[in-house]
Amino acid sequence: MNTGNEGQIIADENVHGRAGVLYLMGAQESVDARSVSDGRSLDVGSSQEPPAKKPRLSSVPSITSSQARRDALKARLGSQLIPHIIRAVHDLPPAELKRDAIAVMATSILVKDPEFGHLLRADSGLLTPVAHNLTAQRAAEVVRRLASLPEYRLNVSRKEAPGVIKKEQVSPLVIAALPTTPGSEPTFPVAASTPPAAEIKRPLRKPYKPRIRRETSPQPIRQWRQLATRPYLSALDRDAVQQGSQLALAKASPLRDGPVVYHVDFSVAEIAQMIDHMIPYVQLNVPRTAAALRQICTEYPVSTLLEGKLPGRAEQDIRNFCSDLLAGTSADTKNAKVFSIQGNTTPQQDEHRRETRVSTLLFARELDGNRGMGRTRRYVNFQSSFKQVHEDAISLAAEFTNCAGDISTMTWIPNQNILCGTTAHSDAHNQQYNKPGNLLLYSASRGVLLAFPDHRIPRPLVTKGENSSVAMRQSQDPWIYSSVVSSDYDAIHGLAYTSSFDKTIKVWKVDSDGGSMRAVATFQHDGNVNFVTTAKDGSGNVAAAADTTTEAVRIYTMNLDNISQSPYYTISCTRNDADGSDKWAYFPATVQWGIAPGTQHLLLVGYSPRSFSGDEQDIPVDKLNTGEIMLWDALERRQVPVMTATTANVFEVAWHPTVCGFVVGTSPCGLHVDHGVRTQVHVFRQDNATHADGAYSEYQKLDCFASDINELSIVPNSLQSSYITAACTDGKVYVWDMSQGDKPIHVLKHGTPLDGVLRPEDREREDTGVKFTTWGRDPSRLYTGSSDGVVKVWNIRNRRKPFVRDLLRAPGPISCGGFSPDHSKLAIGDATGRLFLFSVAKDEKLEKQFTMTLPGTDRRIRRPKPFTPHPEPPAPVLVQDADVMVLDDADEDVDAATYARRRYLDTQQVTIHRNPVIGAVQGPQYAASGLFLRDAHLDDDPAAPLLTKFERLQQESRHSVLGGPASRRPRSLRRLAPASLNEATETRHRANVARDFDVAMLAEADVEELVRAGALLDIGDEGEDWGFAYEESLMEEEEED
Fold first, then answer.
1. Which of 333-347, 673-687, 875-889 has the lowest mean pLDDT?
2. How far apart are CA 682 and CA 696, in angstroms?
3. Rounded distance, CA 699 to CA 475, Å?
4. N or C end of the chain: which has fewer CB within 10 A?
5. CA angle, 827 as apex, 823 and 830 as ends, to 5°?
6. 726 closest CA partner among 767, 803, 782, 798
7. Which residues contact 937 (CB under 8 A, 6 or more apart)?
């Protein structure tokens, strides 16, 4: 065998009885088949392209031209690699394997092998004996591996299968120079002269017939295939963009022409293409999957090797994708998505889009009827689609501001009026922020939000802090306005109800135009009333739940002739775990009357453990996830059995609107709880077939991954199934379809809280999460509001893209909201005391009341309005409670000294010492004042001993006054002796009094001259402050420290 620059020919005359020629070194002329079969070398000296000149042996110059480099590589290949491949291929059975194809592929693999490639490209090009042995072993291994692959086996031993027989012309394979870079394909030039063609027959499969689709029009090309560039961001960057921290990305390109695509997931086809390009490096036939590509990424620099080989993908895009693959944060390749940013549309554009949509639906229905399929190219529910288009026209119509606090409750009453309640600052440390506006009534006819002062209490006396001073109390309102946290309306009897932290429930009669309302009854409770709800069966039953350890739930039956004397009875939690404890108890966490016919007389109460101090550590660990589900029949006054999960901690409940059933959100319970499940939603239905007493049994249990549930909702989507949502403290809304198992079909995510959290893992402890969920006219629209201040609209029937749009971005967290009964208005409240009113139809009256025209332009802008305050209520009357500030009519216009005398001296809380130097001291009734530095005593109890620090300060103060060994600055106290009155003393006193300045003794001209000169002739209460520096008291110094 001749090995040189002229080429290398391998002959084998025993393959299929035909000449098999492997021209491995790139000869450009035809070959003689007869010479090849004899195994003789061919002289290629007559080639049109002369061979490259041999370099001098004395000095090997650097190879500069590409042709020279290829010639040198071919020479080294023929002398150092081809012989090993020939020996390895020679041992293969020619009747079973394609030895020529195996030799070509083995040569290609070894040439691209990095370990052998650098030896071929070395300056010397000579291999050591050890390297020769390694090359022989490597060649034998590659040939053996290729021989095991099915594509290199001959099918001559198989019987001919029935089918279509195709005749093929087989020519000798004249293979050009092997590619020197991975990924390029070998070329097959046509020889100048070819031997006679040999005919072979092999069975072929039946030709594939594509499935005929119903649509006659071509399928649209996927969006990502139409993009010239397909950027890919890492998972961290995608989250940052969605959270709005990279706003510059949206500003980088104009948004007027359409959305800006900033991320395109890798598809299955692209992953397969990447693996195809990497096979020459891997030297194995690996599956075209993401898992295989992940393994390749751990061993090879994929992004560098594939640069420029994927259309639209840059090296950085491939690097980001490989990083996500290794980190396990890449998206599902079977569900590739395109992320884009789009500018806000104008109201005119939205209106035009809705009008176009309506026209399209009307035209399709006119042509095809209500079949929902045809020219729409998809199934369409026309009734639902028209509702969606109509509801999507909803827009902001009015905004009210400056309410007392978070809008905590909202109830629609007739004629589209709204009854609202807010939270209020009433703690000792923030009473200065308490203000009116805790109870409000929106009048749709007048377009105003009216405040009412009825839920208030006299301002309590604060013993410490900035609100404890007399000056602060005198400057503040004598009333504290309490939080109004629950409300409801009885449409049958026309009565509205509100509950408050003033420990009362009030019954209201509201005017038809919403212009006013009056309280017709007040019911006093023993604790803060958290819930009030009315039965919808017309019985007049009203349930209320207060913060009391026993008899917390009352059920009133309204007596319309004398509402204030309406009777009631109480029910309590049946658990006795907390009996006798002074630290915790079971309190009502939720109270709801039934909605569907047959359930409107049933009251569902959920109990949960709560500590009196607000510290969960006061509750035993084994009791944290305990509670009770109580179902009460108000007609028969008995408890209805609930068969499952009755002892779990209850977060929230919700009744089914059409069937006898309800859902309950509880802590996890049962023998088996999946990993990561922190709460559960239990679905109950009435089980009359098994239980004659109408008991409710668990029908389904749904897993939730949040630690607490704020709200539950349920809406039917068919006769047998429903959608269930859970708004949770982690800023997500979990959506289940009861017909599709126990796992959520959607997890609707809101953004970062406006108030922020210190650490993401502490969000559920510090943040309120999603507190507002409501359904539109049908299940195709779900509205949610969270602590990020955004109200989002979702279409949960769209499994891939449920998000529709952001309806509102409020300045504070969303706290509550709800649709009007006819779904024409939507009211939403936030934590800054704002009430937003949305309208589906254009309301010209509201637009006129809440918009104004900018001066000098035709542009109209919407401006919010504050609520209308109520008149100042009269001051509190005199009460006997020592902890309440007492004011009467005589105290309104007195100064601080007179008020202090009446408040403390007349009540003997403080007395005057007989020694005028000592002054005022504690009196016999001082304990009634409550003026103690509780922090100075053990356990904050004034009757307990002083703490060491304060006792030391007291001793130092005593010694500093009376003297002693511990005195730092001993001083003597000058005691005043009783004056001895005699004639000499009286005479001296009259002489001193006669020297006093008396303006009346001056002449009138002198007085006028003194006045003109600015002299101060009368020093009274209105006189000058002579600039004396007053020494601070010890208590003030301690407070500053």
1. 875-889
2. 11
3. 60
4. C
5. 150
6. 782
7. 943, 944, 945, 946, 947
Contact 512, 414 (CB under 8 A): yes
Instruction: Report d(CA 124, CA 628) in Å as an integer.
Output: 87
Output the CA torsion sign for 286, 292, 296, 302.
positive
What are the φ and ψ backbone dihedral angles of 678, each rounded to 5 degrees?
Answer: -110, -20
Which burial class, exposed, middle or buried, applies to 695 when counting CB atoms under 10 A from its CB (0-12, 13-18, 19+)?
middle
- The amino acid present at 337, given as its one-letter code, is K
Classify 903 as helix, strand or coil: helix
What CA–CA distance (Å, rounded) separates 1034 from 445? 60
The predicted-structure confidence for 1022-1037, as pLDDT tens digits, reads as follows 444 445 444 444 334 4
Distance of alpha carbon 378 from its chain centroid, rounded? 33
Q: Residue 419 belongs to what H/E stretch?
A: strand 417-422
3-state secondary structure of 263: strand
Residue 430 contacts residue 424 (beta carbons within 8 Å): no
**Of the candidates 474, 331, 498, the residue with the CA atom closest to the CA atom of residue 409:** 498
How does pLDDT run across 116-126, given as a tens digit for each residue? 666 655 545 56
Beta strands at 439-443 and 722-728: parallel, antiparallel or unpaired: unpaired
Q: Are 623 and 600 in contact (CB under 8 A)?
A: no
Instruction: Give the C-alpha separation, 256 to 234, whole Å.
Output: 27
Task: Give whole-number Cα distances, 137 to 93, 110, 130, 148, in Å.
Answer: 19, 12, 11, 17
Give the pLDDT band (50/70/90) at residue 554: very high
Q: Which tokens go with 447?
A: 């377009």
Q: CA-CA distance, 24 to 938, in Å (whole number)?
A: 98
Average pLDDT over all residues of the chain:
77
H-helix or E-strand containing 479? strand 479-481
What pTM, to 2 d.p., does this model score? 0.60
Number of Cβ within 10 Å of residue 397's Cβ equals 23
Distance CA 520, CA 498 (A): 12
In degrees rounded to 5, what are phi and psi of residue 1029? -90, 120
Q: What DSSP string runs through 647-685?
A: TBPEEEEEE-SSSSEEEEEES--SS---TT--EEEEEEE
Cβ distance 722 to 779 under 8 Å? no
What are the start-end ranges of the H helices in 369-427?
382-391
**What distance lies between CA 851 and its chain's CA centroid?**
33
User: How many other β-carbons are positioned within 10 Å of the β-carbon of residue 639?
Assistant: 12
When comparing pLDDT for 1034 and 956, which is higher?
956
Largest distance between two CA atoms of the chain:
165
Backbone φ, ψ for residue 874 (5° rounding): -65, 160
Q: Which of 352, 343, 341 is nearest to 393 (CA)?
A: 352
Would residue 216 be called left, alpha or beta, if left means φ above 0 and alpha means ψ between -120 and 50 degrees?
A: alpha
State how far the Cα of 210 lies from the Cα of 227, in Å rounded to an integer.
Answer: 28
